From TrEMBL:
Protein name as annotated: 3D-(3,5/4)-trihydroxycyclohexane-1,2-dione acylhydrolase (Decyclizing)
Domain Thiamine pyrophosphate enzyme N-terminal TPP-binding, chain residue ranges per copy: 45-130
Positions of the Thiamine pyrophosphate enzyme central domain: 220-353
Keyword list, A-Z: Hydrolase, Thiamine pyrophosphate
Domain Thiamine pyrophosphate enzyme TPP-binding: 420-568
Family to which the UniProt record says this protein belongs: Belongs to the TPP enzyme family.
Statement: the UniProt record of this protein carries the keyword Cell membrane: no
Length: 615
């Protein structure tokens, strides 16, 4: 057997550089590169290996470990999980900074390879700088924090262990059912240790999507349910996009006359202009989708994990005889709430369903009702995005301005706060993947770093990041990284002086205005934050605009700018789109001295009566 003597870190980088995939007939590296912030836990071993491999496996440096992991996750999402990135940090805070991003990837079923440095396997210098010591377990390190938020976790304590660990990592990262973050904790002494690796370990391998087909029994049950349906509705999730099933979904909906609603992850499965696209569903849903969901007798959930925002905390689907068909490659998701499982790839499953449904179509009256509801919804949406003479614009009006100037072909990136709800309702997505949100983990601080990752995956697209002042203050450092890498973003900061979304939720549950908006927090002086000046100090072109008209002019200029542009606008923290939407289960205290809380509790108890519990 031919062997090659390398350090463990050198073997790792050589292996990653030889993993390939095929996209549109072209063979490309599966790993687009490695994000790295070096410290004593990875600079000597992995840092030296990455330097040697820098032409085959590019290394990118960011300013925050969480942010660079967000960028890597966003790259994978924007690439529909066909390509991915690795991320390395030192031990201690560098590693634990990445745990939030690992949780984001885990919840959203997105691939990322995390390579935190770890303590010495030989334990001779213990405790080393930044080492976490467990008084009762000598095997514990800070990297054990990754265990519950990794699909696969391993700690490399001998150089040869990297061989089976990487094989298992690749199986998880490329599997449509198991896909998610992989953490390989790299003991810093082992990174530098040499081993005679089999040359075959470094053979080039091409990874292509696995297309799992449904079993005959599950397919027959799903077909029978659909043929009996009088009011069917499709709920399209992120799996539709990751499977490359958007055209199949369009053909399926048109052939059988079934309206389509979209989750946050599934938005852009159909163009917003398609007559069968009812838009968003659930807590942040359109009236068109939610009215159909209440009455639907069969829900075909394609590639969705059916989280509470999609199901209105399982109070939206009010038809007592309703059947859910779970078309999903992961049986855990396919069987939720006693669904009829159709365990399969979305593209393969839709094709098999279409082949067996024959000449069946949904009743014309149901399809007509859907299109009429869609027309009514768009009238409401136009009102929400229209310019008014109000002292401060709403989030919806800012969304309307961005849409008018940049259009539905731009890739929109957002994550948390009030904007995702407004965007889910109001943004009119065009191309598949042009709507890019993390709303599975709803991570404040994802937005700018996520925009950077999306731009790396789609360098020819206009990538627009929308976020509130709260998210901006949590993580803005990657503005500098975008300038450094020459990856232009258009960033719109909506400044409502605090956490406006949670303030509205606080009010809706009877709470007092407390600790969310700056004016309601403990303070000596209210901050007057100049976001435009701050963004300019990071290298961006930046401007504070005073109106929707000025925002539109700034966006038009941003299209021709050569580097990242940040536009800041003050917005009203209390205004939200009233049309559409649905109840969301947020527990209200049973006992309170405040009448508003007691009233909210009474309303909460009434709403609970519509909630299904069939887990």
């Amino acid at each position: 057997m031919t062997t090659i003597r390398l350090t463990m870190a050198q073997a790792l980088t050589r292996f990653l550089a030889n993993q390939m995939t095929e996209i549109d007939g072209a063979r490309v590296p599966l790993f687009a590169g490695v994000w790295a912030i070096f410290g004593h836990g990875n600079v000597a071993g992995l840092g030296e290996a990455l330097y040697a491999a820098r032409d085959q496996l590019p290394t990118f440096r960011a300013h925050n470990e969480q942010a660079m992991a967000h960028a890597a996750v966003a790259f994978a999402k924007a690439s529909f999980r066909r390509r991915m990135m690795a991320v390395t940090s030192s031990i201690g805070p560098g590693a634990t900074n990445m745990v939030t991003a690992a949780a984001l990837a885990h919840v959203n079923r997105l691939p990322v390879l995390l390579l935190p440095g770890d303590v010495f396997a030989n334990r001779r210098p213990d405790p080393v700088l930044q080492q976490v010591e467990d008084f009762g377990d000598g095997t514990v390190s800070a990297n054990d924090c990754f265990r519950p938020v990794s699909r696969y976790f391993d700690r490399i304590t001998r150089p040869e262990q990297i061989i089976p660990a990487l094989h298992r990592a690749m199986a998880v990262l490329t599997d449509p059912a198991e896909c998610g973050p992989v953490t390989l904790a790299l003991c810093q002494d082992v990174q530098a240790e040499a081993y005679d690796y089999p040359a075959s370990f470094f053979d080039e391998r091409v990874w292509t999507p696995r297309r799992m087909r449904p079993s005959e029994d599950e397919l027959s049950a799903a077909i029978a349910a659909l043929r009996a349906a009088e009011r069917p509705l499709i709920v399209s999730g992120g799996g539709t996009l990751y499977s490359g099933a958007t055209e199949a979904l369009k053909a399926f909906a048109e052939r059988f006359g079934i309206p389509v609603s979209e989750t946050q992850a599934g938005k852009s499965s159909l163009p917003a202009a398609h007559t069968l696209n009812m838009g968003s569903i659930g807590v942040t849903g359109t009236s068109a989708s939610n009215q159909l969901a209440e009455d639907a007798d069969v829900i075909l959930a394609v590639g969705s994990r059916l989280q509470d925002f999609t199901t209105g905390s399982w109070a939206l689907f009010k038809n007592n005889s309703q059947t859910v068909i779970g078309l999903n490659p992961q049986v855990f998701d396919a069987t939720k709430h006693r669904a009829l499982p159709l365990v399969a790839d979305a593209l393969a499953g839709l094709k098999d369903l279409a082949a067996d449904l024959g000449g069946w179509r949904a009743p014309e009256s149901w399809t007509k009702r859907a299109t009429e509801g869609r027309t009514a919804w768009f009238a409401d949406a136009d009102k929400a995005t229209a310019v008014t003479n109000a002292p401060l614009p709403s989030d919806g009006q800012v969304i309307g301005a961005v849409q008018r100037v940049l259009g539905s072909e731009a890739t929109l990136v957002c994550a948390s706060g009030g904007l995702p709800g407004e965007l889910h309702k109001l943004w009119q997505a065009g191309a598949p993947g042009s709507y890019h949100l993390d709303y599975g983990f709803s991570t404040m601080g994802y937005e700018i770093a996520g925009g950077l990752g999306a731009k790396m995956a789609k360098p020819q697209d206009e990538v627009v990041v929308m976020l509130g002042d709260g998210s901006y203050l949590m993580m803005n450092s990657e503005i500098a990284t975008s300038v450094m890498l020459g990856l232009k973003l258009v960033i719109v900061v909506l400044d409502n002086s605090g956490f406006g979304c949670i303030n509205r939720l606080q009010m809706a549950t009877g709470g007092a205005n407390f600790n969310n908006l700056f004016r309601d927090t403990r303070h000596e002086v209210l901050p007057a934050i100049d976001f435009a000046a701050h963004a300019a100090s990071l290298g961006a072109i930046a401007k504070k605009v005073a109106s929707i008209a000025e925002l539109e002019a700034g966006l038009a200029e941003a299209k021709s700018n050569s580097r990242t542009t940040v536009l800041v606008i003050d917005t009203d923290p209390l205004i939200t789109t009233e049309a559409g939407g649905h109840w969301w289960d947020v527990a209200v205290p049973e006992v309170s001295d405040r009448p508003t809380v007691n009233a909210a509790r009474a309303a909460y108890e009434a709403a609970l009566k519509a909630q299904r519990f069939v887990n």
